[in-house]
Design brief:
α2 runs antiparallel to α4 and α8 packs across α10. This protein is globular. The strands form three sheets. Strands 1-4-5-8-9-10-11 form a seven-stranded parallel beta sheet. Strands 2-3 form a two-stranded antiparallel sheet. The protein has a two-stranded antiparallel ribbon with strand order 6-7. 47% of the residues lie in helices and 13% in strands. With 352 residues, the protein is an alpha/beta fold. The structure holds coproporphyrinogen III (CP3). The site of coproporphyrinogen III has 21 residues, from β3. The site of coproporphyrinogen III (CP3) has 21 residues, from β3.
């Protein structure tokens, strides 16, 4: 029997129900800006060993909840677990970010990609989810997540991070049918992975489309949004008698918030390049909005952080449906006390 949820502000806000204040959590809330995270990562050896150890992954997931009393926990893992389970050989080179030993470049590479069984090679993720759910003991809801097919494909084809997207865009323009085949397999993999996370105890889901914003509007619809639609249509939307809200986040996707809302998702992540007031007008209050303080605002003084929090809250304005967050992940050199100032300001200034 799972414990009843004591703080459900996050789930209620995503359902656009009234809440006594605006819930708050932070993308990359467990990570290198926290000294207690660095200690556990060192104990694990490296980042992937940390992800694949359910007890330690649980420990770092709870660190920011304990420190800041945030309103949601997010599974400690990575979006690149799926391509790793497909056999691409994920590794992290220090200071260089993720790399794949076996990138996907040819038709033969795409054809041999499996759709991984989430209870086999990705079992460690499901074990982390159920361990975290047990240890949270109903304090706050647990968010499960995945990358979008387009974003996963960029890493799979480039073989790591990229500045010019030359290989993935090369495939898009030279052999779009091949890219579609790859995106379809990846979307199928994401659907079974996320449904397995819900089965293991995830109470809300988020899809990170970090690189959708590098596409033209027509290509965004065809190569990114279309596969997020396939995912939204394939997800388990209810568990334990409660809705499992789904949030889509395309970084630099402010101009597409209206068509993203058309997918039937419950919420949209919003980065700081669009005002929440405009985002709200664009989506006509059909979905909840999550965001959107510029992560660099946390380099400012406590007074300026409070002022910028107020600006974000005022920009959303009256009414339900806002989840406070940064517009992208927290930077690793931020002083954790500044995040504390942000969270306190949200709690105080959003009180209704
Ligand atoms: O938000 C959380 O606290 C949950 C954990 C989480 C991580 N990665 C842990 C992580 C989540 C939700 C992600 C998502 C992720 N991973 C995305 C999408 C979100 C975004 O930021 O746009 C992407 C593109 C990745 C791929 C990835 N993983 C990169 C590019 C890197 C290296 C970047 C860097 O900051 O060095 C990672 C590694 C990674 N994933 C770290 C963490 C805490 C840092 C690894 C370390 O501890 O050394």
């Amino acid at each position: 029997m799972t414990a009843a949820l004591q703080n459900d502000l996050y789930l209620r806000a995503l359902n656009r129900e009234d809440t006594e204040r605006t819930p708050v959590w932070v993308m990359r809330q467990a990570g290198r800006y926290l000294p207690e995270y660095l200690r556990v990562r060192q104990q694990a050896g490296d980042f992937m060993s940390l992800c694949s150890n359910p007890e330690l992954a649980c420990e770092v997931t709870l660190q920011p909840i304990d420190r800041f009393n945030l309103d949601a926990a997010i599974l400690f893992s990575d979006i690149l677990t799926i391509p790793d389970a497909m056999g691409l050989g994920l590794h992290f080179e220090t200071g260089e970010g993720p790399k794949f030993s076996n990138p996907v470049r040819t038709r033969a590479d795409v054809e041999k990609l499996p759709v991984p069984d989430p209870t086999d090679k990705l079992r460690y993720v499901m074990d982390a989810v159920s361990t975290i759910r047990r240890e949270l003991n109903g304090r706050v809801p647990l968010i499960g997540f995945s990358g979008s097919p387009w974003t996963l494909a960029t890493y799979m084809v480039e073989g790591g991070g990229t500045k010019d997207f030359s290989k993935i865009k090369g495939m898009l323009f030279a052999d779009p049918a091949l890219l579609h085949e790859m995106l379809d397999k990846t979307a199928q993999s994401v659907i079974s992975y996320l449904n397995a996370q819900v089965e293991a105890g995830a109470q809300s889901l988020m899809i990170f489309d970090t690189w959708g914003g590098v596409l033209s509007p027509a290509d965004y619809r065809e190569f990114s949004l279309r596969y997020m639609q396939q995912i939204v249509d394939g997800l388990t939307r209810k568990a334990d008698g409660r809705k499992v809200p789904v949030v889509l986040f395309t970084k630099n996707g402010g101009q597409w918030l209206d068509i993203m809302a058309d997918t039937g998702c419950d919420g949209l992540g919003v980065d700081w390049t669009i005002d929440l007031a405009d985002a709200r007008r664009k989506t006509g209050d059909r979905v909840a909005l999550q965001g959107n303080l510029d992560p660099s605002a946390l380099y400012g003084s406590p007074e300026s952080i409070r002022a910028n929090v107020k600006r974000v809250l005022d920009s959303y304005g009256e009414g339900p449906g806002h989840v406070f967050n940064l517009g992208h992940g927290i930077h690793q050199h931020v002083n954790p006390e500044h995040l504390g100032v942000m969270v306190e300001a949200v709690r105080e200034l959003s009180q209704r």
